[in-house]
């Protein structure tokens, strides 16, 4: 097994893809009529309201270096977002380390992709705080909260990891020391005004692992806490990491260092009996599947590859058996040169991700995601000078129609230029669609990509893949929903209006 691709990162790229005309694209569940459990009211009873606040947290740049930032706010075609708003990037200094936090960086340019620079953390004395793990809060307000996305990128503006959304239960799965993850750490970032209490659990080849005192970690408000997981990575081929909060919420990112180069494990969907991993590009050598079963029962896992030709079974009729509370690596060499998404089904919930060969023999990771609701944004993309970007679109069930919109700074006039295309994805198929900077874009500038399933489409999964030369994979970013609107159910005089279990067997109070 080759080592995971470890990409140097030093840029954050933020995108807000508020695309006009997609506000009604979500598919909210219908609300119940008062007093009639099991029946539904008119869809008009559910209100669609604009997103007015959104938060992300970008992990510390390796070595505590300065990090340029690129921001995009507004819509395609130069329409822009309606109303006013602001995006503010605020330092989350390392807890317990005497540093002077950098001043906030603000952006108020709807519809324009621009690069900013985040300063490095400074020690309380005269010298830079070398290696200080200072994260960054990315807070969008008003119209500029719509479609918020942020990514840490390399200097040219190529995304290497999405900045995380705060939550209470976050999962990562990737290589241990035997597969290139020798120095592994998790950055816990608190964007809120109250402290969070965090437990970090790890499963490796040997089962549940202990990595020091990783229970009850306190993450103070607006600060970053970094914990090493290198001791549990040693001697293992795979790590499955759960970040769970008992108080508050955090954003988390996991990095791995090998031979002085740092890379990232993308967050993966929580364990489930059905997962889809998009963005498995063609490769001439062995790709690999990381699996983890956090429960007590043995998992019987079936793997189906969704390809341009339809469904294939890499392991034939056989299932992969995984004991409870264990993790494993499985080679995927039968995929060969086929573009695919992987559909994972199991009798008990499992977590999964895929590593594929990359530049100079290493590999890059893609992870399980949810289907795109409304739209997804990948902010840091580049094309030209030997680099090629494409988006892998997969429709496991019904067919989909997808609009792809590229947005980039214009070469003249200080505005943005856009281009778009609509591509069909057949049911049960994966399609690779090339994307590039629009005509008239500033030479050498990154561009943003907005992925919008059109009305009537089936569930759609996607990932952006960057390659160098003919087939050397450099970066994969699994696409996640970046909402511009949310659905509000009607409010009525019943506990059912707020209960997540409207069909509860317990009667409501009169």
Would you write up a description of this structure?
It is built from 1 helix and 39 strands. With 510 residues, the protein is an all-beta fold. The strands form 9 sheets. Strands 23, 24, 25, 26, 27, 28, 29 and 30 form an 8-stranded antiparallel beta sheet that branches. Among the domains are: 11-160, no CATH class; 164-265, Jelly Rolls, CATH 2.60.120; 271-370, Hypothetical Protein Tm1070, Chain: A. A hairpin with a 3-residue loop joins strand 37 and strand 38. It is globular and about 60 Å long. Residues 5-9, 18-41, 73-81, 126-130 and 497-510 have low confidence and may be disordered. It has one helix at residues 230-233, and strands at residues 11-16, 47-50, 53-58, 67-72, 85-92, 99-100, 105-107, 114-118, 122-123, 135-142, 148-153, 159-162, 169-175, 183-189, 196-204, 207-209, 217-219, 224-228, 238-247, 251-258, 261-265, 267-268, 272-280, 288-293, 299-307, 310-312, 320-322, 326-331, 340-357, 363-367, 376-381, 387-395, 400-409, 416-425, 429-435, 447-453, 461-468, 472-478, 485-488.
SSE order and pairing:
Blueprint lengths: L10 E6 L30 E4 L2 E6 L8 E6 L12 E8 L6 E2 L4 E3 L6 E5 L3 E2 L11 E8 L5 E6 L5 E4 L6 E7 L7 E7 L6 E9 L2 E3 L7 E3 L4 E5 L1 H4 L4 E10 L3 E8 L2 E5 L1 E2 L3 E9 L7 E6 L5 E9 L2 E3 L7 E3 L3 E6 L8 E18 L5 E5 L8 E6 L5 E9 L4 E10 L6 E10 L3 E7 L11 E7 L7 E8 L3 E7 L6 E4 L22
Parallel strand pairs: 1-4
Antiparallel strand pairs: 1-11, 2-39, 3-10, 4-8, 5-7, 5-10, 6-9, 11-12, 13-19, 13-22, 14-18, 14-20, 15-16, 15-17, 15-19, 20-21, 23-29, 24-28, 24-29, 25-26, 25-27, 25-29, 29-30, 31-36, 32-35, 32-37, 33-34, 33-36, 37-38
